[in-house]
């Protein structure tokens, strides 16, 4: 089986779908890598060649499988051939048009987002691996932007009180943000609408912020969208509590939906000057009313960070983790390099979003 790794073309995308270490370990698979595909992430063509890959000018043709990070642009879809497999973040819940185009092209598309969150598929879980990067980076950005220390310091010039950080939404990214902010010495609180998360927050040494809003967990482990009334109560409760914090990191998400609006402008207006909000939901519209996706803005003296695609800002490790996820999926779809698609298998069927001209 031949696998092609094209260079990513989406603006600001620095990651690459396979890295040399992982290429070297792919059993029975020939890998062709587009010239320069890994450079932005720190992987040279020579490193790929040493790992056994062939460097080419076109990684789309003559391959059975194309592996990418971001969904292909329209012009890239034209380069795919009928019967080829495509593995990437295809955004199946929010980009129906793109998925439709892939189906029309006769491509068998596997969306990394659609891999079931089951124990057997953990090694393929790219949502988790990339969320880990985002959560870590969010805490670092907050520490960098804050005009205060995170840790408590006792110095000859007196004692500095630690920063107080709140993390709203404690899935994979939120828990990593909590752990990182704690390691930096902040006093951290966390909140999530899924009640099961309370224990996970506390096990990281953070406090549970009780907002009196309790949601439910769906079968897939995700949060159910709150009703309008629950949302209003959550906003009111947050408006009251948010001004206590120097840093607020928001990560709340409902798959396939716009990010829930949690922090109204009126809550930001009550925060201390110099406080920082890092909105990890900026990619889907933002959890804070004042977030400008892709921008860092200052409102009422509060910095609101809406930087997009945080995993791409740490492309080396983000790519390394993503590549391991892709390799695990390849090994699942093609044990020993021979494609054997079992449509009765939960992972194969769950991850497939286009097949035989039809969009799932
Ligand atoms: P996500 O990115 O979809 O959402 C982030 C968090 O936002 C979630 O914890 C969600 O509960 C929370 N949220 C949604 N609406 C909110 C609101 N109004 N206020 C506050 N918080 C809100 O979540 P994720 O990080 O992808 O994780 C989703 C679930 O999948 C978790 O239960 C996680 O433990 C589970 N998971 C399972 C596996 C596995 O078993 N293989 C792997 C990874 C994750």
Tally of alpha and pi helices: 11
- Helix coverage percent of residues? 25-40%
Write down the Rg.
22 Å
Mean pLDDT: 96
Residue stretches low in confidence (pLDDT < 50, at least 5 long) are none
Strand content: 15-25%
Structural class, by secondary structure, is alpha/beta
What spatial form do the alpha-carbon principal axes imply?
globular
Unique bound compounds: nicotinamide-adenine-dinucleotide
Describe this structure as you would to a colleague.
The protein is α/β, with parallel strands linked by helices and 360 residues long. Helix content is 30%, strand content 19%. The strands form 3 sheets. The protein has an 8-stranded mixed beta sheet with strand order 3-2-1-4-5-6-16-17. A 7-stranded mixed beta sheet has the order 11-10-9-12-13-15-14, with helices on one face. Strand 9 (164-168), helix 6 and strand 10 (187-191) form a beta-alpha-beta unit. Helix 5 (126-145) runs parallel beside helix 6 (172-183) and helix 5 (126-145) runs antiparallel to helix 10 (315-333). Nicotinamide-adenine-dinucleotide binds at residues 117-119, 122, 125, 127-128, 131, 168-174, 191-194, 197, 221-223, 226, 234, 251-255, 260, 262.
């Amino acid at each position: 089986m031949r696998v092609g790794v094209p260079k990513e073309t989406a603006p600001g995308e620095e990651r690459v779908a396979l890295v040399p270490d992982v290429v070297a370990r792919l059993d029975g698979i020939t890998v062709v890598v587009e010239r320069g595909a890994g450079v932005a992430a720190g992987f040279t063509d020579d490193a790929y060649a040493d790992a056994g890959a062939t460097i080419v000018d076109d990684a789309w043709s003559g391959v059975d499988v194309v592996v990418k990070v971001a969904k292909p642009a329209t012009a890239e879809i034209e380069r795919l051939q009928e019967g080829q497999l495509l593995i990437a973040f295809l955004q199946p819940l929010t980009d129906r048009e793109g998925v439709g185009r892939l189906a029309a092209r006769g491509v068998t598309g596997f969306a990394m987002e659609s891999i079931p969150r089951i124990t057997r598929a953990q090694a393929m879980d790219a949502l988790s691996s990339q969320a880990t990067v985002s959560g870590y980076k969010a805490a670092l950005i907050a520490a960098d932007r804050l005009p205060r220390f995170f840790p408590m310091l006792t110095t000859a010039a007196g004692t500095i009180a630690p920063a107080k950080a709140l993390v709203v939404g404690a899935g994979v990214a939120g828990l990593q943000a909590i752990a990182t902010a704690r390691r930096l010495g902040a006093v951290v609180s966390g909140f999530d609408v899924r009640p099961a998360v309370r224990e996970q927050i506390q096990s990281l040494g953070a406090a549970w912020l009780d907002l009196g809003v309790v949601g439910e967990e769906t079968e897939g482990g995700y949060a159910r969208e709150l009703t309008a009334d629950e949302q209003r109560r959550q906003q009111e409760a947050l408006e009251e509590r948010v001004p206590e914090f120097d840093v607020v990191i928001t990560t709340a998400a409902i798959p396939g939906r716009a990010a829930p609006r949690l922090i109204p402008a009126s809550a930001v207006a009550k925060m201390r000057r110099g406080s920082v909000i890092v909105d990890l939901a900026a990619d889907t519209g933002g959890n804070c009313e004042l977030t400008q996706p892709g921008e860092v803005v200052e409102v009422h003296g509060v910095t609101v960070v809406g930087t997009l695609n945080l995993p791409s800002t740490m492309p080396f490790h983000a790519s390394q983790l993503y590549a391991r996820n892709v390799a695990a999926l390849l090994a699942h779809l093609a044990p020993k390099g021979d494609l054997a698609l079992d449509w009765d298998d939960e992972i194969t069927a769950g991850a497939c979003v286009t097949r035989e001209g039809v969009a799932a």
